[in-house]
Amino acid sequence: MGKWQQVTIAVMVLSSLVFCSNSYADSGEVYQNAFIEHLDLGPASALNIEAHGRSSADIDNKLTEIYHGNGLQPFWIKDGMPSSRAVDIISVLDDAESHGLDSANYLADKIHKYWDSKDATGLVRLDILLTMGMMRYVADQREGRIAPREIDPVLFETAHDAEVDWAALMQVAFETLNMKAFLEQQAPPALQYRELRKKLSEYRALAVKGGWPEIPTGETLKTDMEEQRVTIVRQRLVATGELATENMVSAVFDEPLAEAVKRFQRRHNLNSDGVVGKLTLAAMNVSAEARIEQIVINMERYRWLKRFKGDRLVAVNIAGFEATAGKPGEFDLTMPVIVGKTYHETPVFSDTIKYVEFNPYWNLPASIARTETLTKLKKDPHYLKKHNMRMFQGWEPDAQELDATTMDWSKISERDMNRYRVRQDPGPNNALGTLKIMFPNKYSVYLHDTPAHGLFSQDRRAFSHGCIRMSRPAEMAAWVLGGEEKGWSLERVNKIVKNRERKVVVLDEPIPVYILYRTAFVNPEDNMLYFYEDIYGRDKLLVKALFGVGN
Catalytic: 20? Predict the structure, then answer.
């Protein structure tokens, strides 16, 4: 059963209950006749409205059920005029743009057209429009818009992951006296969403003023240079708050300007050397309009998240190469991470952390054993021994161990390799490092240590096969296990690691983990908006889905 079907059936049942008490509905045959006439015409079909996978005909059928369940009486009209609840609805729909949404999608323009109606026909049209606009707004805020799923249902799989109790939600929608508060509560509750909404307003104001100037290409700009383009760099950095307005006409690249450039570079995940090279220039020349789109699509991503109750979570921002742990918007721990290569992309999903495994085995994924390890074994049958690896006849726990040095690898194909399990034992060179943090999922993705810590010095840290490598795994493990309060000090974690014995510790209570893809983020330390590279090209597709532009 589709979600819109669930919604409207729930509303039909609820509406029957509402009709029984019907404390706010006008009564009279005049409304009944007008509703029959307009519902028979099919308002959604007439307006060519489709929503969340439901056709116009489906929506018309559900509207008919809803209003017949309410005795063919209006929900939002009282004493022959829009009620206070109707005023609440239109005020929120008119403000949809502040959420990066389009008020026209919620019929706000058509609602205004019939707002001052005095006859039953106009008031009935108004009531139906208010119902359709309100329900579509709630659906978009709770689940996200349908367009991303339609353009790429695999890539944007989590765009329909939100869990919604529509029966309970719609009961509140049709009964509450404070519709404005109800509708405002449908927006994502994440602090980051609220902060992005504020920045959206600021950047729109910047765009109205003309945004910022484009800096012409040329030689790299650095300290002590005198060049006319330096004055344009100053204007660019003043616009977004990295530079004060003093000395605006100077063409000399002085130290204060270099510091401002470093601030800009940090906000765009670039090497903060204070030099305006190719990458920094490209980031500076992204228009205000493009940044507004980037803010909007990142707000949209928050609508896809499952909402949870609790004050502890772990979040990984793939595009920002960063993991955080703590309360929402108030993190105790932040660290650099390594994510999947562009051809081994880390997936976006949410789950719960169940246990921590110290000094883990690494069972090589079949794809790696097949495409990488086999090639190395064909060249050197001793490859496994040299890397502290062992090979087994199958994937069963009691599978027979094999001696790779005695096998004729020239006769073993990639298909044959699927039968074997290759395992790397615990040790300093184990690909998973000293520990892994597990949240079993269909992607076989988890958080783990790595022996290659030198890679954390890179700005663009997309090096893994999809899993997330942590720069400070012991700190994350101690936090996940409860920290000092639960007896899990950093010292205790390091002691277990030092013993080199495999140990699995199950959490007292699972912790939500979100693997996110965020290219716009408001840093709570300086209240500045940070932008990250679209490393997997997902922003382009999402912009195309929501704005109808892009390649």
Answer: no
